[in-house]
Every structure is written in structure tokens, then in C-alpha cells.
Amino acid sequence: MAAPESERDAVVADPGRVPSVIASHVSITYRVFSPGRAAEDNTEDAETGALKRLLRRSTQGVGVREVAAVKDVSFVAYPGESIAVLGRNGSGKSTLLRTIAGLVPPTSGRLWLHGRAALLGVNGVLIARLSGRRNIWIGCLAMGMSPDEIRAKQDDIVEFADIGEFIDMPMNSYSSGMAARLRFAISTAIVPDILVVDEALSTGDTQFRARATARIKEIRQQAGTVFMVSHTPATIESMCDRALWIDEGRLLADGQPKPVAGLYTRKYGEDRHVWRERYAEVHRVIDEQGLEAARDLLRRWEPEGGW
Ligand SMILES: Nc1ncnc2c1ncn2[C@@H]1O[C@H](COP(=O)(O)OP(=O)(O)OP(=O)(O)O)[C@@H](O)[C@H]1O
């Protein structure tokens, strides 16, 4: 069903402020290539079987499945905002965040960024057999820092990671908490305009979490925009001033963290049976009347949502 006109015009920016991110009808679809069936060729020798499979694929095509991870998401974000992204496993949170960080292009729709975005977590580029100190250079270079910038920052990074003599040991000797601390310290060494945090705070001990929270606050105060995935209502309420609830790839709610997290946790929390019926109703409304009508329903249930 085509989206109603009100949904097509969902991106409305505040004329008094310069947005840091504008997402306009962003959809992201993965194409998954499934290998051909191998079992039929077990009477052949391996080489003949492989050749036959290859021939069959080239004539019949490889199975392609499309996964619509993010569906028609629109929002406007501003400097100074700290935005929680919540939703169940597989709902599309990481995909959306990776798109904001510039790692996955939107399949359709438009995304405008004002400034530099960085995904917190330089895990992909770090090399486990090298020391933490060497990895600081690798991670910082990957974030686009110059050698002079790195030299100026490296003592701060070591100090913030606070992993003692392990900084000179290979990263594959680190506990997961230590590795998370070092990654966090590297990726917040420079203040990006848009910081994207994908569950980085779920690791690390209480003391480190408190320091990480303070660092994120610092970034916010320097007028950056922070997006962070979190499943914990207390974290969302203490660290964020806005929440996006992504459900099956759709932006179901965009409002103040407390009511949005409240709706979300009720769906998966205590009065689950009551909410399950309401949730089924939300999905019925989405199918029959569109997403905006479903959001109206949520607004009626949680009028204090600020949406
Ligand atoms: N690289 C990929 N190739 C194909 N499908 C993918 C890929 N990454 C994610 N998906 C699919 O896209 C959908 C959204 O996944 P995504 O990781 O964005 O969800 P998520 O909300 O971050 O989940 P989680 O909370 O488990 O991390 C899922 O159906 C997932 O299987």
C-alpha cells in the first residue's frame, strides 16, 4: 500500500536550527546470495560435481534473497542532541547507524549530514597481534587523524583506556572489557560532529561506564550529535534526550526517551500479554492505514511522548 501524503512529507526541519542529520525516506535492503544446493552431486567425484554446480548457477542464477532492514525512515537530528535507538534484535538499528556513519549506503531515500560522522568502535581495523599502543596509531589513522594529531592525543588515549601495562601487550591478550576500553578511548579521541555508538557501553565495568558516560556528555556539550543503541531504559533516560524506536525496520516512535522507552519496554517487559494485543493492533493499523495512523495510536497511549 502506498504511504499516505502526510508520510511522504515527514521530514520537517526546525527553521531556527541547522540540522546535523536529515534522513528522508531512507530504506536499506541487503541482497543475500544463497549458495546452490550441493547434495545432489554426491555420486560424482568432487571436481565434476563442482563443475556441474557452477554450470547450473550460471544458467539458473544464484538464489538471491532481499532483506529489507530499514524501511522508509525519516527524521531530523540537531547538534547537541543525544538520541537513543531502540528496538528488538534484528529490527534494523545497527544498519541505520552504519548508514549514518557512512558505512552502508541507503538503497533509496536521501541522507544529509552536516559534519563528520564516526562510528564508535574501530574494531574492524585493529590488529589483535599488535600492542594497544600500535593499535592506537592504526585506529587513529583509520579515523582520519594526522600523525601530529595522534602524537598530541596518544597520552590522553592511554590514560583514558587505563589498562596499565597491557597497553604494550598484544591486544589478543586483553579481556573483552579491556579491549572495549581501548576501542572507546581511541574512537572518542577526536570529537566528531556526529558520534554513532553501537552498544559500546554494554561492556566495561561500572567505573569505566561512568567515565564513558562523562565522555559522551562532553561530546554533546561540544555540540556534537550522539546516536546510541541501548536496550536499558535507565541508560536511555540518563544519557539521551530523544529516542527512536525502530520496529521491523520502521520508525515506530520518535520522542522523549522516557515515554518511548516506556512503550518499548512494555512491549517486551512486565505486562507483556496486554501489550502484545496492543502491538498486534499497531501492526494491523500499519497494514490498513499506514504508519502515521499507527503513530497516532501510540501517541494516544502515551500522550506525554513529546512527539
Ligand atoms: N550484512 C548483512 N547482510 C544481509 N543481511 C543483513 C546484514 N546485516 C544485517 N542484516 C539483516 O538486516 C536486518 C537488520 O539487522 P540489524 O543488524 O541492523 O538489526 P539490529 O536491530 O541492529 O539487531 P541486533 O539488536 O541484533 O544487533 C536483520 O534481518 C539482519 O538479519
From TrEMBL:
Gene3D superfamilies reported for this sequence: P-loop containing nucleotide triphosphate hydrolases (3.40.50.300)
Alphabetically, the GO molecular function entries are: ATP binding
Keywords recorded for this protein, A-Z: ATP-binding, Nucleotide-binding, Transport
SMART domains with a match to the protein in the record: AAA
Which residues does the UniProt record annotate as the domain ABC transporter? 55-273
Query: Which InterPro entries does this UniProt record tie to the protein?
Result: AAA+_ATPase (IPR003593), ABC_transporter-like_ATP-bd (IPR003439), ABC_transporter-like_CS (IPR017871), ABC_transpr_TagH-like (IPR015860), Bact_Polysacc_Export_ATP-bd (IPR050683), P-loop_NTPase (IPR027417)
Looking up PROSITE patterns in the UniProt record yields: ABC_TRANSPORTER_1, ABC_TRANSPORTER_2
Spans traversing the lipid bilayer: none
Q: Give the family per the record.
A: Belongs to the ABC transporter superfamily.
Q: What's the protein here called? A: ABC transporter ATP-binding protein
Its taxonomic placement starts with: Bacteria, Bacillati, Actinomycetota, Actinomycetes, Micrococcales
